[in-house]
Amino acid sequence: MRLRLTPRDTTIIDLLVQAGNALVTGADLLEAVIMSGPEDRADRLVKVRDAEHASDDIVHATMRKLNSTFVTPFDREDIYALASALDDVMDNMEAAADMVVLANPSRLPDGVETQLSVLREQAAITAAALPGLHTMKGLEEYWVEINRLENDADEVYRDMLAELFSGAYEPLELLKVREVIDALEDAADAFELVSHHVETIAVKES
Amino acid sequence: MRLRLTPRDTTIIDLLVQAGNALVTGADLLEAVIMSGPEDRADRLVKVRDAEHASDDIVHATMRKLNSTFVTPFDREDIYALASALDDVMDNMEAAADMVVLANPSRLPDGVETQLSVLREQAAITAAALPGLHTMKGLEEYWVEINRLENDADEVYRDMLAELFSGAYEPLELLKVREVIDALEDAADAFELVSHHVETIAVKES
Amino acid sequence: MRLRLTPRDTTIIDLLVQAGNALVTGADLLEAVIMSGPEDRADRLVKVRDAEHASDDIVHATMRKLNSTFVTPFDREDIYALASALDDVMDNMEAAADMVVLANPSRLPDGVETQLSVLREQAAITAAALPGLHTMKGLEEYWVEINRLENDADEVYRDMLAELFSGAYEPLELLKVREVIDALEDAADAFELVSHHVETIAVKES
């Protein structure tokens, strides 16, 4: 445990918490895009883009705060990496929403619903865990659970891949579906990367 | 602002500047490979490989200098990361040149020209910005501009993906074109990663 | 050269060595999965999974030791990164074994045998090099050699890509083979990333 000679400015942690909360909104909006029919997708995609811009603003505010703060609550580069990783999740969710519009597959396998519910759960527990950076409490449970959810995501993703390669899809349709499920898998992985950065901070603080 | 008790050896910054300049050459040579017909590509690819080897030599010289220098201008690991990121851009440009020869698509979408001009512009402003590591001046404009260019690259990349998935391409041809545009997109992303490492150094120095 | 004021606890290095040894087993088991016929693959895949779980256990033991040790042999975050990178190699090898079962290509190009022998060699020299973390001896030869092997892997991978794009494969079969050779290429890259983390440690210690 490090000795603290100065009180920590916790504004930066509050900003990270805000970035986590934005991911809950983002995951809901992503689900709305993907589960809607092609006719509504373009409109709903606009909301995902708005959420992504809001997330960008939070990350930039975090960076500005970081640049103007002498004593940061954790190592400057770890905060930077965590804020970037939170932004990467949002970027990945936007990319998945984007891809379903761009590739426009005729139908999506059922596993996509599981991928979306994993993302919503990962968003919820990430948002719930980040305030724990104030006290460094409850964080291990969080990253263990993110890892468990990521394993669930992997399993459903693998089942869908086997289905895609089974011969039941035409090559072009296979490629379209693949884009969407890959983008969703990347988002689940990005949540895990966030948890790794939280773990790095926790390891240093312990 | 850190106090400097010893003068900084700036040879390492000069080497990073050289690595940046090599990317200007690399982007020009990459464009020459891609925009030429299949019959000239193999010859021009040799020049990209030479540029990549020259870049490797600069990175290795940077690492050797880093190993033999007691007081480095910035944190040792940040210099290492930046030198590696500069080398990654060159690797990505070589991979793109390579891929157009390997996959040999019948024709490339017009957006590829935009991708190439973004890469040349990213190379130019990266090369122009790196000497700013001596004074830490003008770097924020650089990374904002790199990010803007990367967004341009993303947009044209997305348009080409939509075109590929529209049904206008046979699956095999789609896959071939995809390889080339993905490799070019990766190179644009790699420039952004360079700018992130410059930003990390600037954040620590501020 | 840093002055050491306290004796270093070398248990952590021993755990990293164990993680390296596990990769030798992993590479052998991966080869057994891929080179066997489809009928035996599922059974052999179980052994790769077991090896991956054993690797996870070693990494977790390393992390626990890291959390409970005051004076670590190297910077805490570099040990963390190295342990994670060793685990990533195993994850990539498991993913390759998994993918040959999921995608189930009709036949694999001959280059796959070269990919597998590169992986086995990379595993062998990684396992042989990691005990050098005790003395910091012989590490440069190791990372130079890993890089050379990775270049061999790249070359055979590129030749296979050219073959895949030559028109000799149906699109679905191309995609199946692609999955397997990409996963093997990723594993070779992951070995190189391990060597970079070893190099980072060596740079700081020098």
From TrEMBL, chains A, B, C:
Top-level division of the source organism's lineage: Bacteria
UniProt-listed InterPro entries: PhoU-like_sf, Put_Phosphate_transp_reg, UPF0111_domain
Similarity remark: Belongs to the UPF0111 family.
PANTHER family, alphabetized: UPF0111 PROTEIN YKAA (PTHR37298)
Protein name: DUF47 family protein
Species this protein is from: Kineosporia corallincola
